[in-house]
Amino acid sequence: MKCHLRNLLSMALLLVFILSPNGEALAKKLIPMGESIGIQLQLPFIYVAHDVLLPNGQWLKKGDVITGVNGTNVTSLEKMKLQLDSSKLTLTVRQKAQEQRDISLTSEQANNILPFLKDETDGIGTLTFIDPESKQYGALGHQIIDGVLKEPPEFKNGAIFLASIEQIKKSSPGNPGYKISVIENNNVRLGNVKSNDLYGIFGSWESDIKDSLRKPIEIMNNEEIALGKAEIYTAIEGSEVEAFDVDIIKIEDNVLQFVVTDKELLEKTGGILQGMSGSPVIQNGKFVGAVTHMFVEHPSKGAAITVTEMLKKTPK
């Protein structure tokens, strides 16, 4: 699985809490992160990741869901493989907007299609914050949409992992760039994934947070955010998080627009990359928000959600 991350956290402070509009207690201080993370969501079903032409002339279409083998329900590839010993098999397949159908295959043919099946969603993104009091984290700033299913995937459990940037594909007008990242050799699990909400993924932090290079900082109220200089924290090489200069050029409700002004970042990445979603935005030493989008035709320009809105998880 490809992804990205490093650098962890700080001492726990006695925090003051504020209330969100929905009545939830939110920390007034958060630890800004910026590490690249690999994300893995384990799904409660098996789906077809690519169109597959079967020997009998039938097709398994991308997005089809395999619900059973020989009349036995299967919810994971592991369970499916246990059913493949029979010489002849019947797969029960559910297609979008169609009823279930049965497909007959030999054991060999069924084994040949296994590389085209998935029971998890993998991705990359950027860790946004950790609340040192509640030990909860937030990342991405937007919801994960499975590229095959074209919808937020239902999942039974999930995890985030430490990862490292191996290569950068620069952005150019009309051609979004991206980070090529891998889970680090020690395969460090950082936390679980409890929810995949409109404003990002959220869960419990499971790693040690005593030795962070960054300490908790205050959250900036929306009315304090100003046009002008700010920074984003993100990793573009290895697992090191760096601060890069941006200018906030527009503030509208809970959304910010900014342009990258940092010469080093522009030289190395062309601006905003896929995989930077979740990078913290900092202004005057306070936590402002998280990067969520890039402008495809103008990759030096990006958008961010305010952290006060992100903490709501879903809009009310």
From TrEMBL:
Residues 94-316 form the Peptidase S55 domain. This is Peptidase. SUPFAM superfamilies: PDZ domain-like.
